[in-house]
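Inputs:
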Amino acid sequence: MDANTAIRLKDITKTFGPVVANDKISLEVDRGEILALLGENGSGKTTLMNMLSGIYFPDAGQIWVDGREVTIRSPRDAFELGIGMIHQHFKLVDVLTAAENIVLGLDQKGRLDRKKVAREVRAISEKYGFDIDPDQKIYNMSVSQKQTVEIVKVLYRGANILILDEPTAVLTPQETEKLFAVLRNMKADGKSIIIITHKLNEVMAISDKVAVLRKGKYIGTVNTAETNPQALTDMMVGHAVTLDIDRPMAKYHDLRLEVKGLNCRGSDGVKALTDVSFTAMGGEILGIAGVAGSGQKELLEAIAGLQKVESGHIFYYPPHPKSDIAGNHVPVDKAGEELVGKNPTQIQKIGVSLAFVPEDRLGMGLVASMDMVDNMMLKTYKESKGPLVDRKTPRALAEKLIEELEIVTPGVSTPVRKLSGGNVQKVLVGREIASSPTVLMTAYPVRGLDINSSYTIYRLLNEQKMKGVAVLLVGEDLDVLLELCDRIVVLCGGRVTGVVDARTATKDQVGLLMTQSAGKEAEA
Amino acid sequence: MDKVLSFVVAAVLAGTPLLFGTLGEILTEKSGNLNLGVEGMMFMGGVAGLAGSYYYEQAVSNPNPVVSVLIAMVCAILCAAFGALIYSVLTITLRANQNVTGLALTIFGTGFANFLGEAIGNTAPSRYMAVGNVTKDAFNSGIPVLQDLPVVGKLLFSYNFMVYLGILLAIVLAWFLGRSRAGLNLRSVGESPATADAAGINVTLYKYLATCVGGGICGLGGLYIVMNSANGVGGVWVHNCVNGKGWIAVALVIFATWSPARALLGSLVFGALSVMRLYVALGIPAQIYDIFPYIATVIVLVAVSMRRKRENQPPQSLGLAYFREER
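Outputs:
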């Protein structure tokens, strides 16, 4: 350990009951260095960082900060040592302003001098290039603004060591670029940064060193300049993985959904969708791209019958009689069954299935405190005859999913809440697919997932496509959308600004459509 | 005119115990603890305060009103805060269910106070635990000289000192929650304890303090009920004297949308509604009058939930226990 080492961890171990989350992990970070912490879901990255920030207390092991051995018992100890963590689920109080959140818990007594705080916040913002209004309430902020508040909060406390837990998971490509610029400024300022991320291109772009964890164990550290995404993936997964996404052609390619002039208002009464029209084909993955909050959620919900439609039509056409999924639903009008006006149960019976993974991953679709069997049953309990529910079938399905999707869980009767994020998503997507839909709508299915799990999900979507299912995929990673989808519908401010062929379109082209204001018809 | 004046005065007097209960519960709930034991803590404060003064009067031959009042208040605050402390240990440290614990506290406090009040009363020659006129007057007299002014005197200066104490407390609490750093920290504990914890705030300490101090304030409300003679009797233990006022205070917290300033208005309105039948003849059965406060609560609840303004919502983690290493 030399004088330039900011943090050193030695043999850190943490167990939760029978689960060993961190097994003798050792790590070093220098000043003015960005370390990327890489690992699959549940490999113990967040647990390790939570011990640095005082949320968890290690069972064994030593920590040195600036060459001095320390004991971190609470978050307060951590920030007194200059360690600040930006958690994946932001730790902000919604009803307070940015400035109030920033000064929260600081030692000064008595009256709160809001003007002074605002001044100081502006000073920090200018230094590192943030854009922040100290008097804005958190609940009025976008995800990216909230993240900025978190970073300023940590800097305001004089942190020299910043830990960011999956900071880019909820950001648009542009916002990510902005964040990286800020991180580089901080690095130049001599601060140490640890960044947890799943996105290999980001690791390559921002980090100096990469440390890899696998299943709670430390695998090794490499210099970013001397490695490549393939080598990192192999380290992370433990065996060679191919990084290419397949885009096979399906046997049947027929019209499945036709959306015509759809208008919707969101829950806050603001117009969410304006005159949206497009078609979705069976045997095709239709990507839906757009900046977060461009109407993706409302669109999917409108099709699923969860969102009130003001005007417009959604027609459903049955699958090709010879395809694998023919007859998987109640009889419908061959000339186009109108979905608008039907309730969610009726639409589900027709074969339209929705798997929405919200930002908190659990909000829609799964009940956190129920176990896998009960969550499977949510979809099927109406089918059993008589007054008693059938638990055998859902249990078998849950066990099948655990095996096929490699879901890590102590058992089918563990509450879903206790599973790690990636495993929760596998449960959700797996269940929707198991209902053998003819239209599968999924939003952010790989949100926060590691490479291996992401590819499992991509493979599942492709399988559905090959069966002739119309797959609608709302995604945030343009690279993936362009590789996986057949066509991409681009939404901007609730309008369709373009439909492109994913085989020929470029990232810039889609990015431009995503930010195009309505009415201004820039050429794409 | 005289009747209107009397009505207002009676409304203020009837609203004051509600104000104490509401303020105490606002402070408690701002820390994320939903303490449904307000009724119980008011009972505990009431009986302890009365007993304090009673024994003081028994012990000295010439009781001093100021000392008697102070003893009563300290006993009331301590005993009610003790009830809140039991609740805190159970819900904060042992993470028991807050609703169940609060209900248990109400049942306990009611029984405790009625038992103690009557047990002490049985030892007295009069068969009642009652304080003398010295203490009674101290709790019921208005501001000298000023209260003799025409109209204004009766409207503003005729109340006992606890009314002014309650108003002062509301102002202090409003300042504390809205303007001070400690208040900001407390609010963040109630909204998101994990955030507060990560920011270096001692969540457990804030929860304990807010809940116990809040309980003490509720206890003053109980003391007021016992000592106030607006209803004819005062300074004597009456079986079941709190009689649901603690529950109205819980409803008032929602009515006031967790704002001490609106608690002032709310307790005045509820005080007025509760004495209305004596002053406003509508020719309807008395029972209908009794419903008015509850109808008002329902209307406010509906209105508040329709507006859905974020600041008017309950503290986000109200009713939830916090454990740092929760996965």
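Remarks. The mean pLDDT of chain B is 91. Chain B touches chain A through 25 residues (CB under 8 Å).
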